[in-house]
Structures are given as C-alpha cells and as structure tokens.
Design brief:
The protein is mainly α and about 220 residues long. It has one domain. The chain has six helices and no strands. It starts with 5 loop residues before the first helix and ends with a helix.
Length: about 220
C-alpha cells in the first residue's frame, strides 16, 4: 500500500502561506505608525510651504507698496507744502481703509494719479511764470523774428494757464473721489434703526395695560 505525497506537500504549502500572511500582518502592524508619521510630516511640510509662500507674497507686496509710496513722495518734493500736505491727508485716509476695499477700488492707483497730476500742475505753473513776457525792449525796436517769438510765448503762456486750471480741477476731483470712496467703505450701509423695537415694546405695554383694565373691570 503506497502513501500519497500530496498531503505533506499541502501541509507545507499551507504552513508557508500562514507564515507569509503572518509576516505581512506584522509588517503592516509595524508600518502603520511609520506611514502615519510620514503622512503627518508631509502634511506639515505642505502647510509650512503654503505659509512660507504667503509670507513671501506679503513681504513682496509690502516692499512694492513702500516703493510706490516713495515714488509718489519723490514726485511731490517740489510741488509745494500745501499740495504735499493734501497728499499726506489722502494717504492717511487710504491707510485707514480696509486692505480689501483699498485694493478693490484701487485707491493706491488714485494716489499715483494725484502725485502725477500734482507734479504736472507744478511744472505748468512754473512754465506760466517763465513764459511771462517783459517789456524791457520797446515794441518798435524788436525785429520781426523777435516779435514772432514773443507772440508764440504769449500763446504758449495762455495754453499753460488753461492746462494749469484743468490740472488743478483734476486734483480736486481726485481728492473728492478718494474721500468719498473711503467714506462709503467706512459706512457701506445705513445703521440699525430702533423704531421697530420701540413700536413693539409700546405695543407690549399697551397689551399689559388693556389686560389690567379688563381684569379690574371683571372684579369691579
């Protein structure tokens, strides 16, 4: 009678499979904490990366804003104290405004335009002074070419006067616009009203009074 070799082979295969499954279980059991730690580190790295990126962007925006403000003040160096003081007032108003609102309405852009207009206004005002004609030489003593230049100087002076007036009007318009935008941002909607609450309380008091009167009549 022959003994089959299949049974020992099956037993060995089953044993090997059991050992393999047990090994995989042990590996999974030991690897789970490691994987969790790795995932946590990766998540922290991503969060830190985002924070660092945002910090860089914020610093870059602050540097750009400082350069922008410095460029405006450089333009305003020779415009005179009254106009420079007017700009500083507008700058303080914009700084007091919320950053999101200032960006939405481009208040920094309005300040840039104000500085550019102030510089142009100052230059045209000086051009008006330079274009003023004197009367040192008699009219008849002037040559035709000198008379022609004199006429052109007077014409240019009139053009500079008109341009100076337009620039001054533009400056006042920008001043009003910046103040109006900041005013609307600070108070975007009407404040709360108390009329409804007062009416409701008075109605409650009237109900109490009527109830007391009814109660008094019932006992009377």
């Amino acid at each position: 009678m022959q003994v089959s070799n299949r049974t020992p082979t099956k037993l060995r295969t089953t044993a090997v499979s059991a050992v393999g499954i047990g090994s995989l279980g042990l590996v999974a059991w030991f690897a789970a904490p490691v994987v969790s730690v790795v995932m946590t580190i990766v998540a922290l790295a991503m969060v830190l990366g985002v924070a660092v990126s945002r910090g860089r962007e914020q610093r870059a925006r602050r540097r750009a804003k400082r350069r922008r403000v410095a460029a405006r003040r450089w333009k305003l160096r020779q415009v005179g104290a009254p106009r420079a003081h007017q700009y500083e007032e507008l700058h303080e108003l914009v700084e007091s405004c919320e950053a999101s609102a200032a960006e939405r309405f481009d208040l920094e852009g309005l300040l840039d335009q104000f500085a550019a207009l102030a510089q142009a206004h100052c230059r045209h005002a000086k051009a008006v002074e330079l274009a003023a004609c004197d009367d040192k030489a008699p009219e008849r003593a002037r040559s035709p070419l000198s008379k022609q230049i004199r006429v052109r100087r007077e014409q240019y002076r009139e053009a500079c006067i008109r341009e100076t007036e337009l620039l001054a009007d533009g400056l006042e318009t920008l001043d009003d616009l910046v103040r109006f935008v900041v005013q609307r941002v600070m108070a975007p909607a009407p404040g709360p009203r108390i009329e409804h609450e007062v009416d409701r309380r008075l109605a409650d008091l009237d109900e109490v009074d009527h109830a007391q009167e009814d109660l008094a009549r019932s006992f009377g």
